[in-house]
Structure formats: C-alpha cells, structure tokens
Amino acid sequence: MSIRVVVADDQEIVRTGLIMILNAQPGIEVVGEAADGRQAVELARRLRPEVCLFDIRMPGLDGIEATRTLAGPGVADPMAVIVITTFDLDDYVYAALRAGARGFLLKDAGAALLTQAVHAAANGDALIAPNVTTRLLKAFADGTPATPPRQPLDALTDREEQVLAAVARGRTNTEIADELYISLSTVKTHIASLMNKLGARNRVEIAMWAYETHRVRGAA
Question: Does the keyword Transcription feature in the UniProt annotation (predicted)?
Fold first, then answer.
C-alpha cells in the first residue's frame, strides 16, 4: 500500500512542487493539500494519512501549532509530522521537535532526502536534515528544559548508550549497524528498548533526551 501524505504550505508554487515530487515516487501518494494550518489539521484528522508534511510559516495556524495539535505530548494517537521550512533557524527546529515533529527538512533538501524522510516517518523513525541535525539538536542541551529530564525506567546498557549517542548524532539504523558492527535487527531492538526505558515515542525524542542529559555534546 502507498504511504498517504497530506501536504500543507501557503505558497502554491511550493506546495505544487512538493506534491509533484512526492507523487512521482513509487509507494507515496499525496491525498490532500492545504494552504493554511487549520485546513491542514482538519484534513489530517479526516483523512488520517500516514505522514503530514507541514511548512512552518502558514497563516491562521502555523506549522508548529498544527504539529502540536496532531502530534504533541498530550495527543493520545499522535500522527507522523515532518516540518519543512526555508529558514535554517535553531528556534524553529527546537519548537518543531518540542511540538512532536518526527522530522525536519529544509526546502532545498532535494527529492531523495524528502522521500527518505517520508518513508522514515511512516515507519516510525525520524529524519532531520543531516546538515542541521547535530547543531540543532544541541539546542536542547544549551537551553534549560522546562522540566528536569526524566530518568530511564531501567539503567541503560553499554550498547544502548552507544546506540543512543549514534541516534542523537543523526545516524540512520544502517549507519549505526555499520559503526557498531551489529545487525540491523539488533539496532532496531536496542532502539525499541531505549524508547521503552525513556518513555520516548520516536527517535527524535531519544535524541532530545540524550542532549538534555548531556550525554552528547554536539560532536558529529
């Protein structure tokens, strides 16, 4: 089955371009489009797509609030949202990830990275543009969390600490497997264990926790 996507961007030419790129990819189908955040939320709730692709700056309800509405901490059945923007600003990424975004891309990311992000989000993973991953996630370490980082339910194993650091640096599962000389299925098992121990819903939240607890300090 195709991954169904809702695209929201207030610039028609950008929205049309994103739709054309996504519809040209095998296994991806854009099922709805919106020009503002409120319409995007309504469409997403009605269509229940596998992935939502939202621009940050939209009239009425911006991409951050739309993301929080559909994927925020208090949402019982959060949807997979990727935030896309022209602006490479720390504050935007910080806000997007806090709001529950499962990915963050710049609009010049290209078709290959956009497609990869959609597949990752649909599979329960997350992708943040590699050129901004470390610097932007590091914002969580530089700022003071609103609440103290939660403690893991059980102590992390040495291998889980290694996987945690790799996830925080934006490594993919395949890259982690290659770096640590373990199988892909073992990587997935460790990530599932980390999510359980940390109470994280996705790998973005795992990375955020790593930076908030100063386990990773921005090394690439």
Answer: yes
The predicted model scores a pTM of: 0.73
Q: Are residues 112 and 62 in the same domain?
A: yes
Give the Cα separation of 54 and 114 in Å (integer). Answer: 12
In a domain, residue 220? The reply is no
Alpha-carbon span 215 to 32, nearest angstrom:
40
Boundary (domain end) residue, out of 131, 159, 193: 131
CA distances from 42 to 3, 53, 114, 115 (A): 19, 14, 23, 24
In degrees and rounded to multiples of 5, residue 15 shows phi and psi of -60, -45
Q: Are residues 116 and 181 in the same domain?
A: no
Identify whether residues 48 and 22 lie together within a single domain.
Answer: yes
161 CB burial (10 A radius; 0-12, 13-18, 19+): middle
Residue 137 lies in a domain: no
Q: Which two tokens stand for residue 160?
A: 């889980």
Q: Are 66 and 28 in contact (CB under 8 A)?
A: no
| Per-residue pLDDT tens digits for 41-63 | 999 999 999 999 999 989 889 99
Range of the domain at 161: 145-212
